[in-house]
Design a protein that fits this description.
The protein has 19 helices and five strands. With about 425 residues, the protein is mainly α. The protein has a three-stranded antiparallel beta sheet, with no helix packed on it. It has three domains: about 5-45, no CATH class; about 45-235, no CATH class; about 245-419, no CATH class. The longest helix has 21 residues, at about 135-155. A hairpin with a 2-residue loop joins strand 1 (about 25-30) and strand 2. The termini are far apart.
Length: about 425
């Protein structure tokens, strides 16, 4: 007779054995390879594009050989000839990553013992080419690496299908010429290179708050150059990946509140449930995101980026789904009912719902409310009244709080966010 405890132990052993097998398992999805690493399936990029390092034998210059091998195998093999300074930047930084342990070991960097290719065939020419590397090349390459991590912070892509981001295009063209922006070979090289640098370490140096870095990584990155001040400022120019819609909502409401007739428009509009138009949650959320962006990043959990418990963005979106839909509908209706609102550029955003009969029908009371105010405004416009006089004439007709007042209250409550 098998005891229950023995059966449970047997099942547990079986599960542990299966977990061990997972570490050897690879699978493909939509042309991408994944492997079970550190209790998660992680994407494994083209293994002949992995940087090989050997920190225990730095005199072998394995990273230099590896980077040269990768660059020389791109396209027709002319990248090194056509863009030597670009390649010197890549190779120079590869060496710095190896020496200082600034690399991201795992999906894009491997040690010599686990490499899937051997770059020794290009050793002599690689080392000869490496002699041309200057401090300028290294500085330029590290700047590209930092820019790519900023892209990751804001878009979840280091590069994407093209050279994404203002800074990446600006610096590539400045360093290597305008024609480098259209070079497919440079794009392919960057797609490998930008993943070699350690995400946590570089974001930490960019002063993104609350990055989960251990003491060893902090020590390694003490020698990493201080980023340009504009890179540090750029951290806050956009919201972290996965949260752009919250920035859009607050920005839209702010823009509408500054429009000429915001003092005349009731807020919240007539509704069965006025709570769906509450603004404090979105201003509080945006405040929190700006103070702790990495906690809200789309990949914060899977990449263990934050010292705080990462926010589940799906749950967050589901919690406020009705509020989000209602406020964005309000924005769309306002923008279309009132002419010449400064925020017309907002209507180009895909998250702002299209103004049509379906939207009007769903939010009929909101449309009727705003349309009534608009009709009164237009009556005075037909008499050639200016905007300021129209507001002075009409603002006391309603005892309901206005959009202007509702937003002013939020701005006062979160005044630090407007400095």
């Amino acid at each position: 007779m098998v005891l229950t405890s023995d059966a449970l132990i047997s099942v547990a052993d079986s599960i542990l054995d299966s977990m061990g097998d997972l570490e050897k398992l690879e699978y493909n999805k939509k042309g991408r390879k994944y492997r079970f690493v550190n209790n998660n399936f992680q994407r494994i990029r083209e293994e002949d594009k992995h940087l090989i390092v050997n920190p225990d034998k730095l005199d072998d210059f394995v990273s230099v050989q590896s980077a040269y091998y990768i660059l020389s195998s791109i396209g027709d093999g002319e990248l090194i000839t056509n863009y030597p300074d670009f390649c010197l930047s890549i190779i120079g930084v590869a060496r710095e990553l190896e020496v200082n342990k600034w690399y991201e070991e795992g999906s894009s960097v491997t040690t010599a013992a686990y490499a899937k290719y051997n770059p020794v065939e290009v050793k002599e020419e690689a080392l000869e080419f490496y002699k041309k590397v200057t401090e300028t090349h290294i500085t330029q390459g590290l700047n590209l690496l930092m820019i790519s991590k900023l892209n990751f912070l804001h878009t979840d892509h280091h590069i994407g299908t093209k050279l994404e981001g203002h800074y990446m295009s600006l610096f590539i063209s400045s360093y290597y010429g305008q024609d480098s922006l259209s070079s497919h070979d440079i794009l392919i090289a960057l797609k490998s290179f930008v993943h070699w640098g350690n995400i946590k370490g570089i974001l930490f140096k960019l002063e993104v708050p609350n990055i989960n870095v251990d003491e060893e990584l902090k020590e390694n990155f003490k020698k990493f150059p201080d980023p340009m001040e504009e890179f540090k400022v750029h951290v806050y120019d956009r919201y972290p990946s996965g949260t752009s819609k919250y920035s859009l909502i607050r920005k839209s409401i702010d823009v509408l509140a500054d429009s000429p007739f915001a003092k005349l428009v009731p807020y919240p509009p007539p509704s069965k449930d006025s709570k769906v138009y509450d603004l404090q949650w979105i201003y509080q959320l945006c405040h929190d995101i700006e103070k702790n962006p990495i906690k809200y990043h789309l990949r914060s959990s899977i990449k263990n980026l934050s010292i705080d418990e990462p926010i589940n963005l799906t749950e967050l979106s589901n919690t406020y789904s009705t509020n989000i839909a209602s406020i964005l509908a309000y924005v769309s209706i306002f923008m279309n009912v009132f002419e010449n609102t400064d925020g017309s550029f907002l209507m180009q955003h895909s998250k702002i719902p299209k103004f049509n009969e379906s939207l009007i029908s769903k939010y009929q009371s909101t449309y009727d409310c705003l349309n009534t105010v608009s009709a009164k405004v237009n009556d005075y416009k037909d008499k050639n009244w200016n905007d300021e006089d129209i507001v002075l004439r009409l603002e006391h007709e309603s005892s309901l709080p206005s959009l202007y007042e509702a937003v002013l209250e939020m701005r006062e409550l979160f005044s630090d966010d407007y400095e």
